[in-house]
């Protein structure tokens, strides 16, 4: 390593240490969690900006700066249908789900977690619904957190002289530390700051690269034919209808994402939700649109990358670190911090809400546990979920590639977890809010059918040795979501209707609150 590289590393480390210091300071500032409502909901005290930005940043993760730009880099705007689906899902979630879910969790005995909400919403004294939900929570959140650690394991070796395994452990240790200390309030405030860092990074980098290349005309001339055609597969053919359906279906996942929904629930007042919705929708439009442009500009600026998901990192290095000036190195370091923030801002929420699933099971087993005991148990559960996620991330390493292989990359793990949550919980969240005939039996059936469908579709070879996902090329969220919805409707209709008390609560939750 030459003198220039050593100097760059020192300045990058300095910027990262300042960033780490700010994050840890916020965690300590919000460390006094006296009960589960404080630890998991921040006492329902999120303001409109924090609620909006933390919800969207915990959604996007490293996928925004790695997965999506990499997909566009490899195949063009034919992969932008994912972004379209996510934008539609974001709008629907904020406009139709946010207020009513926040309201109903309060009516349902001030529920703190999604499994607890399901239990209270359907008066499930058997705890079967809560435990079933918590089990699928634990499975899919472990996979989801692992995707963040894989992204960190891919990113950090590109910046510092460390290997993949060390990068995974370093990222996980940092995320676990401040998640343990601060709970949801600390996570939400840090995520809102990181949300602006992510947006600035993904918005301004392609503009700077375009200027460096001499204008858009030169960029356009170096992008392969068909890359601007959303009906093209990027290889000279037409994109299949099943691919468009699969990509658009990502938007269905929002209705069942616990780490996003928890931020909607935690907003301080119902009237603030509309303000948060505007902020969130503008943010997601700018962020996803910019990520698509990053992929296109990156293809023109540096074609031939072995791993398309590293295009953002390589662009930052080429523009800022090859410049030679200190100011360029510092700006480049901030861009890399923005990328790290994207990864970390989802991993923290996943660990927190994933640990809530373990805590929910413990609360059923130990009904006499105090709030203080539950908070400390929840902190311990963070370690359990993190350890499993680290194991998955480390197992994803391919020595031949020096990183994760295609079957364990960021996009693959995110897709698995996204489909799992969207299928297991999305239909139930919608039915619990908008169909009063939904009952406990239907709810249990929906969770089991949705979650199981995704696992079977993705991993069980049923068609001549191939999985249904490989055979049909249909994203597992599509069959998982609609089979779960069908199970809820059919089972609810053929079993006993909800009690009068449940129906009364439904009517109360349908009316706006003046909080």
Explain what this protein looks like in three dimensions.
This protein is mainly alpha-helical and 515 residues long. It is 74% helix and 2% strand. The protein contains 20 helices and 4 strands. The chain has helices at 3-29, 36-41, 48-60, 67-75, 81-107, 114-121, 128-159, 164-212, 216-221, 241-248, 258-265, 270-301, 311-321, 326-365, 371-395, 410-434, 440-459, 468-472, 477-494, 500-509; strands at 397-398, 403-404, 461-463, 466-467. The strands form 2 sheets. Strands 1-2 form a two-stranded antiparallel ribbon. The protein has a two-stranded antiparallel sheet with strand order 3-4. Helix 8 (164-212) packs across helix 12 (270-301).
């Amino acid at each position: 390593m030459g003198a220039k590289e050593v100097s760059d590393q020192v300045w990058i480390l300095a910027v990262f240490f300042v960033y780490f210091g700010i994050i840890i300071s916020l965690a300590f500032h919000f460390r006094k969690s006296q009960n589960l409502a404080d630890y998991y909901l921040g006492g329902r005290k999120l303001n409109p900006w924090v609620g909006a930005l933390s919800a969207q940043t915990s959604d996007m993760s490293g996928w925004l700066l790695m997965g999506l730009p990499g997909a566009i880099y490899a195949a063009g705007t034919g992969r932008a249908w994912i972004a379209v689906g996510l934008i539609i899902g974001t709008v629907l979630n904020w406009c139709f789900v946010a207020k009513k879910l926040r309201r109903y969790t309060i009516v349902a005995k001030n529920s703190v977690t999604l499994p607890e909400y399901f239990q209270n919403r359907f008066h499930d004294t058997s705890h079967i619904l809560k435990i079933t939900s918590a089990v699928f929570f634990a499975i899919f959140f472990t996979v989801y957190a692992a995707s963040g650690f894989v992204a960190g394991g891919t990113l950090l070796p590109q910046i510092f002289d460390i290997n993949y395994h060390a990068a995974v452990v370093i990222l996980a240790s940092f995320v676990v530390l401040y998640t343990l200390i601060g709970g949801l309030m600390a996570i939400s405030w840090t995520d809102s700051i990181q949300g602006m860092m992510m947006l600035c990074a993904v918005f301004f980098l392609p503009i700077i690269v375009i200027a460096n290349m001499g204008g858009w005309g030169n960029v356009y001339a170096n992008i392969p034919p068909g890359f601007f055609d959303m009906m093209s597969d990027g290889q000279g053919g037409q994109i299949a209808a099943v691919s468009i359906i699969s990509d658009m279906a990502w938007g269905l996942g929002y209705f069942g994402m616990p780490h996003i929904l928890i931020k909607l629930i935690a907003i301080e007042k119902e009237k603030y939700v509309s303000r948060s919705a505007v902020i969130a929708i503008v943010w997601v439009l700018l962020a996803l649109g910019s990520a698509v442009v990053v992929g296109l500009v990156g293809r023109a600026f540096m074609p031939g990358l072995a791993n398309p998901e590293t295009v953002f990192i390589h662009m930052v290095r080429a523009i800022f670190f090859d410049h030679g000036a200190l100011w360029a190195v510092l700006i480049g370091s901030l861009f890399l911090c923005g990328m790290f923030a994207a990864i970390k801002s989802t991993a923290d929420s996943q660990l927190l809400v994933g640990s809530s699933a373990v805590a929910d099971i413990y609360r059923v087993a130990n009904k006499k546990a105090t709030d203080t005991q539950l908070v400390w148990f929840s902190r311990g559960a963070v370690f359990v979920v993190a350890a499993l996620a680290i194991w998955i991330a480390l197992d994803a390493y391919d020595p031949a590639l020096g990183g994760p292989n295609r079957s364990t990359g960021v996009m693959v793990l995110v897709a698995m977890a996204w489909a799992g949550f969207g299928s297991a919980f999305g239909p139930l969240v919608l039915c619990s809010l908008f169909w009063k005939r939904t009952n406990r039996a239907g709810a249990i059936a929906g969770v089991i059918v949705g979650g199981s469908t995704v696992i079977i579709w993705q991993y069980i070879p049923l068609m001549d040795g191939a999985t249904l996902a490989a055979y049909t090329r249909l994203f597992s969220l599509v069959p998982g979501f609609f089979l779960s919805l069908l199970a809820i409707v059919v089972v609810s209709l053929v079993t006993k209707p909800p009690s009068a008390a449940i129906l009364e609560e439904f009517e109360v939750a349908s009316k706006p609150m003046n909080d």
